[in-house]
Design goal:
- The protein is built from eight helices and six strands.
- It is of the alpha+beta class.
- It has one domain: 3-Layer(aba) Sandwich (Ubiquitin C-terminal Hydrolase UCH-l3).
- It has a six-stranded antiparallel sheet with strand order 1-6-2-3-4-5, with helices on one face.
């Protein structure tokens, strides 16, 4: 049977804030553009702490190789239930990576406290917790509110697609229980990238080094020059 394929979403605050509002994340939170990884003055507009980052990277040969090597010896993801450190969704809907990336940002870590009770997002989160990987993916695949929310955002935004030569992948970074988690629906499961201190959020220098900059270094060390990526940050409004 042919699988669903949706229109790709753009990775910008306008799109993701609209998706958040539609699904039921509190308007106390907002996504913000991340204009630099190193220049404090270009990050000053983002309230801290940052609760999640949503990034789209070009799938360069070096990153593709590293992904395959990391996943090669992993079996099917077994996480489920209230003891699961993060809620992760396997992607089975074509081009739904932006909306699934949003889910990973919104339902994990401190952001989950801002989900409106009885909203579609709340129902998706609670339905997902007890389910195993395939059941969880099927639940999301068949979720009418999730599909309607995605479709309501496809004509929002005006940014150009990232590097058509290397298709982009959405990756979410969240901090849960002092660990930096990398979440992407096309991987074998969530990835624990390392420990963060109590005073370090996902936009802190250490988190960037363990996350976004690690991926950038892979391309640089392989002699690549495709450093284009898009990053937005989820934080509480001031």
């Amino acid at each position: 049977m042919e699988r669903k394929t949706w229109v790709k979403l753009e990775n910008n605050p306008e799109v993701m804030n609209q998706l958040a509002l539609k699904l039921g994340l509190s308007s106390e939170l907002s996504f913000y553009d991340v204009w630099s990884l190193d220049e404090p003055e270009l990050l000053a507009h983002i309230p801290r702490p940052v609760l999640a980052l949503l990034v789209i990277f070009p799938l360069t040969p070096a990153w593709d190789k590293e992904r395959r090597e990391e996943d090669a010896e992993k079996g099917d993801y077994k996480g489920h239930g209230p003891e699961e450190p993060v809620i992760w969704f396997k992607q089975t809907i074509g081009h739904a990576c932006g909306s699934i990336g949003f889910l990973h940002c919104a339902i994990n870590g401190p952001a989950a406290q801002y989900i409106r009770p009885d909203s579609d997002l709340d129902k998706i989160r609670h339905a997902a917790i007890p389910l195993r990987m395939e059941e969880r993916a099927d639940m999301l695949y068949n979720s009418v509110p999730f599909e309607e929310a995605h479709k309501s955002c496809v004509h929002t935004g005006d940014t150009a697609p990232i590097n058509e030569g290397h298709p982009g992948h959405f990756v979410a970074f969240v901090k849960v229980d002092g660990r930096l988690w990398e979440l992407e629906g096309s991987r074998k499961g969530p990835i624990d990238r390392g420990e963060l201190g109590d005073d370090e959020d996902v936009l802190s220098p250490k988190a960037l080094d363990l996350g976004i900059k690690r991926t950038i270094r892979l391309d640089q060390e392989a002699g690549g020059d495709d450093l284009r990526f898009s990053c937005i940050a989820l934080a509480r409004k001031t």
